Amino acid sequence: MGATRAQVAREALDRLVVDVPDFPEPGVVFKDITPLLADHDGLTAVVQALADAGRDADGATVVDKVVGMEARGFILGAPVALALGAGFVPVRKAGKLPREAHAVSYALEYGEATLELHRDAIAPGERVLLVDDVLATGGTVKAAGELVAACGGTPVAVAVLMELGFLDGRAVVGDLPVHSLAVI
């Protein structure tokens, strides 16, 4: 029996994600996904595995939209939306969207951030998959979910390449199912 999509994606992550010590500051090990993005087979594997979070057990798509958080969530979320036959919606940093938007501010380890979503990006009742590269403290995912809810949509799951388990972001996310291709 062949490897599952999640296993193939995990192998691609192990092979192609590069640790960069002391970036962007001393003591931080940055996970550089650009080699993964440059590898067609690796990128295909992770997109397919992330898209599985938006499908039911029979493989049917159960989401109407995919939301990708700035910035690497854009890179991953758009092809996930295509794989699911769903629309893609970007969640941006404050001041980047040209039309009326909902905004949510949240605390970071080093300050505060604000995310925005166009008010008409998600229709009431639409089911939404949240996609990002890393789940760390959970603040970005929680804020994105609040933005979706402000539009009247329903977040149904989170899909990420990597989860920093030692930061316990799942606790902040709450009951929303988290699909992580790798826990670090």
Can you describe this structure?
With 184 residues, the chain is an alpha/beta fold. The protein has a domain of 127 residues: Rossmann fold. It has six helices and nine strands, in the order αββααβαββββαβαβ. It has a seven-stranded mixed sheet with strand order 5-6-4-3-7-8-9, with helices on both faces. Strands 1-2 form a two-stranded antiparallel sheet. It starts with a helix and ends with a strand.
Keyphrases for this structure?
alpha/beta; two-stranded antiparallel sheet; globular; 184 residues
Encode the helix/strand succession as letters: HEEHHEHEEEEHEHE
Share of residues in strands: 25-35%
- CATH-level-2 architecture of the domain at 57-183: 3-Layer(aba) Sandwich
Q: Overall mean pLDDT score? A: 95
Tally of DSSP helical segments: 6
Q: Main sheet, how many strands, which sense, barrel? A: 7 strands, mixed
Identify the overall geometry.
globular
Cα separation of the termini? 27 Å
Main location: cytoplasm
Family: Belongs to the purine/pyrimidine phosphoribosyltransferase family.
Pathway: Purine metabolism; AMP biosynthesis via salvage pathway; AMP from adenine: step 1/1
Organism: Nocardioides marmotae
